[in-house]
Amino acid sequence: MEREIIELFMRHLKIQGDLPLGDDAGAIKLGNEWFVATNDMLVRKTDVPDIMTPEQVGFKAVTMNVSDVAAMGARPVGFLFSLGVPGDIDMDYLEGVARGIGDALEFYNLPVLSADTNEADDLIIDGIALGRTGRLLTRSGAKPGDLVCVTGDIGRALAGLLLWRYGVDVSGRIRRPLYEKLLEPRARVAEGIELSGYANAAIDISDGLSKELHLLARMSGVRIEVDAERLPVRKEAVEAARMLGISAVEMALASGEEFELVFTIPGEVAESLRVEFTVIGRVEKGNGVYVTIGGKREEMPLLGWEHLNRKVYGTYRALFR
Amino acid sequence: MEREIIELFMRHLKIQGDLPLGDDAGAIKLGNEWFVATNDMLVRKTDVPDIMTPEQVGFKAVTMNVSDVAAMGARPVGFLFSLGVPGDIDMDYLEGVARGIGDALEFYNLPVLSADTNEADDLIIDGIALGRTGRLLTRSGAKPGDLVCVTGDIGRALAGLLLWRYGVDVSGRIRRPLYEKLLEPRARVAEGIELSGYANAAIDISDGLSKELHLLARMSGVRIEVDAERLPVRKEAVEAARMLGISAVEMALASGEEFELVFTIPGEVAESLRVEFTVIGRVEKGNGVYVTIGGKREEMPLLGWEHLNRKVYGTYRALFR
């Protein structure tokens, strides 16, 4: 459905900016600088798990937009938002959302430039982040020979979501770091700015590493080879995967809204980066995305969280039969 | 409700941009230039009368944002949007909206920089327009001695809305120009750019001239005096007001989403403007907004369309008793 809607709109939008559509953000060139703008809508009913506090909802509405700016290698310079608010909204809840937005703007040191409110059926926060950079990072710049790298670790957000969804009883030691990533992810702003000087391509993890790698490979016209053993998955996420009866690698590849940056960069340049990252693979000539697991190389499937959810549901249904 | 929500958010948003909140758009200074950004959400259920075609809905979602940029004296340079789309949307309707957005972007010669779609309960178009200008027009710059001026004419949008709402039978000669303004308003882009060199303050008519004048007076710390006889109201709007049993002046002051620009400017400068406009009053020291009707001067009430709607409802209920 989403794909169909986007194609329908593409047919009718003839004038594009200095950067074609399809990146994390739009961009226009002003003099020697790129000005970056991005918007992302958060809809309570579809995007917010019940355990999220209103403060976390507000914070995340900022983070998801700031992350798109960071993925372009740009420094965030301002935030705007439109609210859709149901007539019967709980004002305490709304105040929590406001507090979360305010806290996030302080955290990212970002001024709010404009805010607007409207009546709507469901709580909607449409955030807009603006940024600037001398050199733009896109999804189409990956070059054969580049290393494929990722900041931070992956998999915790989906591990936390599945533990919550299936009411799996785990210790606080495991639950805490997983819920932290699920409920309070942070955008990699400093990393994006540093990378803008060196990387050839970048994207943030919104829909899961496997989907982002496929986008990078397709938009850059290259092949990507990933070594599953190098994926930075924390032990709490591995333990959760075992309890849920699923593969930790698949979980890490499917986990969305992690807001880590995936980037490609020449090996000799990577050494001087002042960013913590893990090399997970390599860019080659060709096309497609491949992953080597336990010495076996295969095409990397396009994994989404629904896929893992079905597997867990299968396991749990069997257990309770 | 809207006011309460805005105040709630203001308490939690500590960092503001180079221009305080409260104008048509947000702005940040980059070198010698102002970069302007604005966003406005259109919700089908509350913002769209049934007679509007999907093409008109899409076009208006662009116009309302471009108008805010124009009111800042800025040249629009890019457009972004987020869609909220119900699962059961009629795809033909959605294609009409896409065509309308595409037509508007061609009309305003504006590139689309980013687009995003989400599932939502109602059709929502959150548009964002970006612009740039060397000199910013704000709501707070009006100076005693300035003339108060307005582009185009006012009142047709509300006249058309009320005729439609109450099913009043009028000739095409009257209906056509009123519906044109109601359904296909256009932003005053060239006028905004020209005014940025000369005017002291500007605002676009979103909520009705009376509300915009009160905002101008309050934010500039001045008094505004308007001469009702000088208001540019077209004869079709006057005839509609007569048929509806309401005052044409009140209708013109209450009519929203006209997207005309209201501006204040020193008299000697106004003469050299290459913009068509009407002088409707004068800025003085003091505070408040006053209107002189038939030689009688009174405080201008804060008129909204609901007010006029109640009056027409009263008339029509009496007629049908």
TrEMBL record, chains A, B:
<keyword id="KW-0784">Thiamine biosynthesis</keyword>
<keyword id="KW-0479">Metal-binding</keyword>
<comment type="function">
    <text>Catalyzes the ATP-dependent phosphorylation of thiamine-monophosphate (TMP) to form thiamine-pyrophosphate (TPP), the active form of vitamin B1.</text>
</comment>
<feature type="binding site">
    <location>
        <position position="68"/>
    </location>
    <ligand>
        <name>Mg(2+) 3</name>
    </ligand>
</feature>
<dbReference type="InterPro" id="IPR006283">
    <property type="entry name" value="ThiL-like"/>
</dbReference>
<protein>
    <recommendedName>
        <fullName>Thiamine-monophosphate kinase</fullName>
        <ecNumber>2.7.4.16</ecNumber>
    </recommendedName>
</protein>
<dbReference type="GO" id="GO:0009229">
    <property type="term" value="P:thiamine diphosphate biosynthetic process"/>
</dbReference>
<keyword id="KW-0418">Kinase</keyword>
<dbReference type="InterPro" id="IPR036921">
    <property type="entry name" value="PurM-like_N_sf"/>
</dbReference>
<dbReference type="Pfam" id="PF00586">
    <property type="entry name" value="AIRS"/>
</dbReference>
<feature type="domain" description="PurM-like N-terminal">
    <location>
        <begin position="22"/>
        <end position="132"/>
    </location>
</feature>
<dbReference type="GO" id="GO:0000287">
    <property type="term" value="F:magnesium ion binding"/>
</dbReference>
<feature type="binding site">
    <location>
        <position position="206"/>
    </location>
    <ligand>
        <name>ATP</name>
    </ligand>
</feature>
<feature type="binding site">
    <location>
        <position position="68"/>
    </location>
    <ligand>
        <name>Mg(2+) 4</name>
    </ligand>
</feature>
<feature type="binding site">
    <location>
        <position position="40"/>
    </location>
    <ligand>
        <name>Mg(2+) 2</name>
    </ligand>
</feature>
<dbReference type="InterPro" id="IPR010918">
    <property type="entry name" value="PurM-like_C_dom"/>
</dbReference>
<feature type="binding site">
    <location>
        <position position="116"/>
    </location>
    <ligand>
        <name>Mg(2+) 1</name>
    </ligand>
</feature>
<feature type="binding site">
    <location>
        <position position="305"/>
    </location>
    <ligand>
        <name>substrate</name>
    </ligand>
</feature>
<feature type="binding site">
    <location>
        <position position="139"/>
    </location>
    <ligand>
        <name>ATP</name>
    </ligand>
</feature>
<feature type="binding site">
    <location>
        <position position="40"/>
    </location>
    <ligand>
        <name>Mg(2+) 1</name>
    </ligand>
</feature>
<keyword id="KW-0547">Nucleotide-binding</keyword>
<feature type="binding site">
    <location>
        <position position="24"/>
    </location>
    <ligand>
        <name>Mg(2+) 4</name>
    </ligand>
</feature>
<dbReference type="Pfam" id="PF02769">
    <property type="entry name" value="AIRS_C"/>
</dbReference>
<feature type="domain" description="PurM-like C-terminal">
    <location>
        <begin position="143"/>
        <end position="293"/>
    </location>
</feature>
<dbReference type="InterPro" id="IPR016188">
    <property type="entry name" value="PurM-like_N"/>
</dbReference>
<dbReference type="GO" id="GO:0009228">
    <property type="term" value="P:thiamine biosynthetic process"/>
</dbReference>
<keyword id="KW-0067">ATP-binding</keyword>
<comment type="pathway">
    <text>Cofactor biosynthesis; thiamine diphosphate biosynthesis; thiamine diphosphate from thiamine phosphate: step 1/1.</text>
</comment>
<feature type="binding site">
    <location>
        <position position="207"/>
    </location>
    <ligand>
        <name>Mg(2+) 5</name>
    </ligand>
</feature>
<feature type="binding site">
    <location>
        <position position="257"/>
    </location>
    <ligand>
        <name>substrate</name>
    </ligand>
</feature>
<feature type="binding site">
    <location>
        <position position="204"/>
    </location>
    <ligand>
        <name>Mg(2+) 3</name>
    </ligand>
</feature>
<keyword id="KW-0808">Transferase</keyword>
<dbReference type="GO" id="GO:0009030">
    <property type="term" value="F:thiamine-phosphate kinase activity"/>
</dbReference>
<comment type="similarity">
    <text>Belongs to the thiamine-monophosphate kinase family.</text>
</comment>
<feature type="binding site">
    <location>
        <position position="68"/>
    </location>
    <ligand>
        <name>Mg(2+) 2</name>
    </ligand>
</feature>
<feature type="binding site">
    <location>
        <position position="24"/>
    </location>
    <ligand>
        <name>Mg(2+) 3</name>
    </ligand>
</feature>
<feature type="binding site">
    <location>
        <position position="47"/>
    </location>
    <ligand>
        <name>substrate</name>
    </ligand>
</feature>
<feature type="binding site">
    <location>
        <position position="38"/>
    </location>
    <ligand>
        <name>Mg(2+) 4</name>
    </ligand>
</feature>
<keyword id="KW-0460">Magnesium</keyword>
<dbReference type="GO" id="GO:0005524">
    <property type="term" value="F:ATP binding"/>
</dbReference>
<dbReference type="InterPro" id="IPR036676">
    <property type="entry name" value="PurM-like_C_sf"/>
</dbReference>
